[in-house]
Design goal:
Layout lengths: L4 H15 L8 E5 L6 E5 L5 E6 H6 L1 H19 L9 H12 L8
Parallel strand pairs: 1-3
Antiparallel strand pairs: 2-3
Helix pairs in contact: 1-3, 3-4
The structure holds zinc ion.
């Protein structure tokens, strides 16, 4: 699977800026035609991360795409830090607050 260039460029930048490049550099980021979800992430035991963003979100605008990618990156970060994988549980909330405090959402919300 080949990444969308714009999504991957943002991921690479955000990984360096907000995650100390801790997230997998070879992650695959693509747009798809998800209907019910706006974005989702998968992390495989082999270390591959895949982030999918709905084309419907792209149609609304970049800032929504950026928010979704950061949200999914927070999921990958929580999984990598070996904490319980509750989908939007305490650890995920903590990671999102950390990102907000670091200014990750300033241009987007
Ligand atoms: Zn989520």
């Amino acid at each position: 699977m080949k990444s969308d260039r714009g999504l991957k460029a943002f991921y690479t930048w955000a990984n360096r800026r907000y995650f100390k490049s801790r997230l997998p550099p070879d992650a695959v980021l693509v747009y798809n035609t998800l209907r019910r979800r706006t974005a989702m992430s998968h992390y495989f035991d082999c270390g591959l991360a895949v982030i999918e963003v709905s084309k419907a979100i792209r149609a609304i605008g970049w800032k929504h795409v950026a928010m979704e990618v950061l949200h999914e990156m927070a999921h990958v970060s929580v999984i990598l830090s070996d904490t319980p994988r509750g989908v939007h549980g305490k650890n995920f909330q903590r990671e999102m607050k950390r990102l907000a405090a670091a200014g990750a959402f300033e241009k987007y919300w």
